[in-house]
Specification:
By secondary structure, the chain is mainly beta. It folds into two domains: 181 residues, no CATH class; 153 residues, no CATH class. It is built from three helices and 36 strands. It is globular.
Length: 461
């Protein structure tokens, strides 16, 4: 890179974000708790707490039953680099809205959607009353954040007058309670990482969804949290994993113990020693312990995915970059239905001197390479922009508006949501679920209607 371009790059990245030391420029920025405060106490049975402006929840204390008192901990945030050195900048917390009501005693997790955190809670009545949560989105100089390194607390007796507080790096992102005040509450916290924009003379990739699309991009961790983890043995004999007893149980139980199984356990079901996978119905699966993730119904995903739903990059040794995209549901019908839960698609860009020279687009398990002359590209400032189109329902990728595939059943159109997949990029090799070799979705009658294999096992080598 020429010295003048390097200078412009550093200036652009650090506009309004000035390092407070002379250390090397950090590759990642994080927002962590700075000053913590305690709220006043309030009677739990009629309590509402909203964190002050530009603060987030970092803890909670409760003593007694519903007539006892509840106290919250909230904190301001500071930006630090990967060396934990302070970074100056403007941190803002945007209030998004209240969640739906959840019966407090029902044992149902509330997790803030990816890229958001908890900034308030409201509860009415006793343990059979309802609770809801206020979420917020945190930015640094207008740049979005993503939530990483989630950690779940152990059980804390609700009536026990015991504080839950996050550690020095995390803020609150979720909570669950089951039973009365003598039962346990559980909390979840995560670290806020700033999603830095692409540098000048790089590229941006936009995926344009169909204006009538019904199933939008989804963070894989949200899909995992909403799923049961199941062992496929045959119709009517499948097992579910009970995270409380840490055992496989036959049947179709849908109680809370079967959802949100630890990702580390799911990730332990990787490729078999003989190279076979664990995806039911797959022609390359092994003979036993084939497993699948099964959410309820048809997950719709995030209607505003840019900056919130990540893409997952796999870098090849020859310089190509493969971006993997996930959707919670694939809707596809032609004479027969080929719909299924879970959908992984990918865009692979070929580059020279930092500019895109071509792209391979996935469609129905195949990839087609298009030279740059066949792609829609333009320059925005110093950034080359590539635009591709996702077909309605199937999310198969094409270089233009039109009708494609069998009898033109893949339809792409302008006018829908534009997802900038390079605005929130995570490295595929760093994902806690990457080794999982089962199905991302329930088991169908055929391989086509069964959830797909994950990207680590389908990536370009």
């Amino acid at each position: 890179m020429r010295p003048s371009l390097l200078k412009n790059l550093l200036a652009w990245l650090l506009t309004g974000v000035c390092l407070a030391s002379s250390a090397a420029v950090a590759q990642s920025l994080f927002l962590v708790p700075q000053f913590r405060y305690s709220s006043g106490s309030s009677k739990e049975s009629s309590s509402t707490f909203i964190a002050p402006a530009n603060t987030v929840l970092t803890g909670r204390w409760h003593g007694g039953d519903e007539n006892g008192q509840t106290v919250y901990q909230y904190a301001t945030l500071q930006a630090v680099n990967e060396f934990n050195e302070p970074v100056a900048g403007t941190i803002a917390v945007q209030t998004l809205g209240w969640s739906h009501w959840i019966k407090e005693s029902a044992g149902i997790w509330f997790d803030a959607p990816q890229g958001t955190v908890l900034i308030g809670r409201q509860h009415t009545g006793d343990e059979n009353g309802n609770t809801r949560y206020l979420t917020g989105r945190v930015t640094l100089n207008g740049l979005p954040t993503e939530v990483i390194d989630l950690a779940t607390s152990g059980g804390i007796k609700e009536s026990g007058s015991i504080w839950y507080t996050t550690d020095a790096r995390r803020v609150m992102t979720g909570r669950m309670h089951q039973g009365d005040e003598n039962k346990n509450s559980y909390y979840r916290g995560g670290t806020l990482r700033v999603a830095l924009p692409p540098p000048p003379n790089a590229f941006r990739i936009i995926v344009k969804l169909h204006p009538q699309e019904g199933y939008y991009p989804m963070a894989p961790m949200d899909f995992i949290r909403a799923s049961r983890f199941r062992h496929h043995k045959g119709w009517g004999t499948d097992q579910g994993f009970n995270k409380s007893s840490f055992s496989w149980v036959s049947g179709n139980d849908k109680s809370w113990e079967y959802f949100d199984v630890p990702v580390s356990f799911i990730n332990s079901y990787t490729i078999n020693p003989d190279g076979s996978n664990r995806r039911p119905r797959d022609s390359k699966s092994g003979s036993d312990w084939n497993v699948f993730l099964q959410p309820e119904g048809h997950p719709q995903g995030n209607f505003s995915p840019t900056g919130q739903v990540p893409s997952f990059r796999h870098r090849l040794q020859d310089g190509r970059q493969q971006y993997w995209l996930f959707y919670g549901y694939n809707e596809s019908s032609y004479i027969l239905s080929f719909s299924h839960q879970g959908d992984w698609e990918d865009v692979t860009v070929h580059t020279a001197n930092g500019l895109i020279t071509g792209a391979s687009l996935s469609a129905h398990g195949e990839r087609t390479l298009y030279p740059v002359s066949s792609l829609q590209t333009y320059v925005d400032g110093n950034v080359q922009v590539l635009v591709v189109y996702a077909a309605k329902g199937t999310h198969a990728l094409y270089p233009a508006v039109g009708n494609f595939h069998t009898a033109g059943t893949d339809e792409t159109r302008d006018g829908g949501v534009s997802w900038v997949i390079t605005d929130n990029v995570q490295e595929l090799e760093e994902q806690p679920w990457k080794d999982y070799a089962g199905a991302w979705g329930e088991v169908g009658e055929t391989a086509t209607t069964t959830g797909p294999l994950g990207p680590w096992h389908k990536k370009i080598q």
